[in-house]
Amino acid sequence: VKAAAADVVIDGTNVTANEAGTATNKDKAAIIFLHGLGDVSLFDIRIPTHEAFLLSALAGTQTPDGWSKLLPEALPTYRPNLANVDITYVFPPAQNVGITVNGGEQMPAWFDIFDWPLGVDAKDDPKGLAMSVKRIEKIVAELTDEEGIDPSRVVLGGFSQGGAVALMAAYNRRKKDAVPFAACACMSGYLPLKTYLDVSEGAAKDTPLFWAHGEHDDKILFEQFVYGVEKLESAGVSVTACSYPVGHESSNFKEIDDFAAFLEDVLCADEATADEMSKSAKAEAGGQTAPLLDDDEKNAVLYYLLAGDADNEAVESSTQESMPMETR
């Protein structure tokens, strides 16, 4: 016997339980960010922007990778318009996998790695990649069904291995009629399964890519960045390609700043336009607007967010002094 669907309320609209899975709110957004090889997260942290302050406590003990502490705090600090968007940040943990290049050692990973460094001819793990992509698709479905976030407002991103999975999930869509994601971000990652790349027309047109890479990366070689950017651009993807004179870094302040600017364009174009209009109006009226953080101030913010509890007290005074009053 099929029970009658109960009425539920999503954003003030009465819908049936059967309809709830398809009711979405275009004002909401989500950023799914995947950590790199060996990073640990004891559980799937999913938290809305307005509760991001809780991550300070969570990240210190349960997410050594640091992304769950860094991004929700740094992104709106670098680009204040992002604070006006109702963003849910999701940092899923990878399962333990035996890593061939490490002698079969079990560690958190999205798929197996067979050799270091990874050049364009590196061997792939199709099964592991497919399983991870399916998991990301499940998370996206849950965000739609449970939180009303439209897939077109979801940004998929990741670092290193996580970036490779994000690229596969965003552009090698199994369902060619699937709703394109808002954007994709690959930080120090690479394009796997190159021979099987099949970018759907919708994804190429509507899912811009932010790709950042260190020029001296000795784990995932810079040639992967050059090859991947050219390959995806030739498939019609709009790529914002940024390189930095660093190695296989998990983050640097310029990279995070560039990522924040990219997200501002993707997620809050209306807010950015309104902000520019406000600045113009104030200028005409002879008023002043608060400046964005300069490079030294951004570096101080990033260092503060990434520092451990013992270091926070040491840098707190210098960080506070370097930050404009309106950001404290």
UniProtKB/TrEMBL annotation:
Q: Which GO terms describe its cellular component?
A: cytoplasm
Q: Where would one find the signal peptide in this protein?
A: none
**GO-annotated molecular function:** carboxylic ester hydrolase activity; palmitoyl-(protein) hydrolase activity
Sorted alphabetically, the keyword list is: Hydrolase
Superkingdom of this protein's organism = Eukaryota
Answer whether the UniProt record assigns the keyword Hydrolase to this protein.
Answer: yes
Pfam families on file: Abhydrolase_2 (PF02230)
Where do the Phospholipase/carboxylesterase/thioesterase domain residues begin and end?
A: 82-264
The text of the family note is: Belongs to the AB hydrolase superfamily. AB hydrolase 2 family.
Looking up PANTHER family in the UniProt record yields: LYSOPHOSPHOLIPASE-LIKE PROTEIN 1, LYSOPHOSPHOLIPASE-RELATED
**What is the protein's given name?**
Phospholipase/carboxylesterase/thioesterase domain-containing protein
Instruction: List the source organism.
Output: Thalassiosira oceanica (Marine diatom)
